Amino acid sequence: MATTTLTTENHDETVKDGTVLIDFWAGWCVPCQRFAPIFDKASEAHPEVTFAKVDTEDQQLLAQRYGVTSIPTLVAYRDGIPVFSQPGALREADLEDLISQIGKLDMDEVRAAYEKAKEQQQG
Description:
This protein is of the alpha/beta class.
């Protein structure tokens, strides 16, 4: 599956279901250029996962929303819940391991922890 361009307009719809990996990048970023083929290869190997890319130059508000201060940054969602966020380019084996780990998450536990965290933030 090809990657999707993620924007503020299609963000919520894109991340609401399934597993979604988001690559925050910029054209001038050398580590981003090195990570891009790894991300693209994984997108071909995992058609069940949505692979999305955010051009931080074009989508500055979306990058700010995530607090992205270093690129590349990889964010992962499962069933509408953010489950991973890390700056830095991953090696191919590490990305494959991450995809596997996300697929094995006990989403009942994740949902419960997410709801508890939201309640604590709201005070």
